[in-house]
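Async update (no meeting this week)

Hi team, since we skipped the sync, here's where things stand on the single-chain job. The sequence we agreed to prioritize is pasted below, unchanged from the tracker. I ran it this morning and attached the output directly underneath so nobody has to dig for it. Comments welcome in thread, and please keep replies under the output.
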Amino acid sequence: AMLKAQIRKAEKIEAPSAEQQAELEQLRSQLAAAEKALAELEGQIPAAEPKPEAQAIDPLKKAKIELAMKRAELKKAEKAAADDAELSKLRDAVRDAEQALHAAEAATNRPEPDRALVDKRPVDDRTRELKTEIAFARADLRKLERDENAPADALDAARARLAEAERRLGEHTN
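Output:
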């Protein structure tokens, strides 16, 4: 690139002297030699092959996406209170997707991830509502406690609200 720039600069001279003309010819011959050497070196480098690992990842990604979609379908059906036959079919599809994911992971040359599978039981709607109420009551109480000008009766009411929410959650879970 530097030789090309020098050649262009030398060619721009309107009336080159004999010395400048000789320098231009020398630069051109150096450029030709450099291009020839570069072509030889490029010929020696083996063509880069696509990584086999990159090709193996695609089925793994596909299996992960498929499993996530099947889990989402199952969760949606459970929320919509679908019938047992449909839920059973969706659970089987999730199980098949998990097996496909395990097979795809085994097919790659990566080490298997450490799994700690836990069967999570979904929280029923009433428990979720009660826990949300506790969180809001606790947040309101903390906000009032930080406020130096908060009236004492507002603080007492917030504490009572939190205690009542905790009591209702305790009754519901027992």
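Quick observations from my side:
The chain has three domains: 2-44, 53-107, 125-173.
The chain is about 75% helix and 0% strand.
Reply here if anything looks off.
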